[in-house]
Amino acid sequence: MAHTTARWLAEGPRVGIRPFTLEDGEEFTARVRESKGLHQPWLFPPDTAEAYAAYAGRLIDDPAKAGFLVCEKTGGDIAGFININNIVHGAFQCGALGYGAFAHAAGRGLMKEGLNLVVDHAFGPMGLHRLEINVQPGNAASIGLARSCGFRLEGYSPQMLYVAGAWRDHERWALTAEMRRSGRPGPPRTGGTDGR
After folding, report:
1. Global pTM?
2. CA angle 122, 143, 141 (to 5 degrees)
3. Scanning 81, 131, 156, 185, which has its CA 20 to 30 A from the CA of 23?
């Protein structure tokens, strides 16, 4: 399954990031099937060849999307994936992040390293200014990853996204290029009475 000839867009000590390819389908879908207990009820990545081809095709062909595989440098195994969706250029220069680790890589810090690489790539070569992550409030692992990479909580959106047959509440986390360069979260959020 491993892809040892991967060409990294960026690399850290343990992982590199690279774009999705259609040839990754077999390994990706096998990892998804192994990871259902980790992903659900939060995430439903493609687990069949047909679903993967459609999913990867959108990430490859749509200029408003960018998909990255987080791969272990030793062996090239896919540890997880990070997508930037809804990319808007012009005055906005923003994208929305989505991500998932695979079970064999969970809890090893590989996704944190990968997310940091994607953020640097987004604020560097991609020329984005702001990244957002929308996370269901009960998804402690995803919230922990966002926080550990410097994202700040900006708000709470009731019934924001349709996931697993229902409209789900989401927390909104964000990071700007200036926050990243300074190494500090943005100014504290003001207002609201719900303690968030």
Report:
1. 0.88
2. 110
3. 131
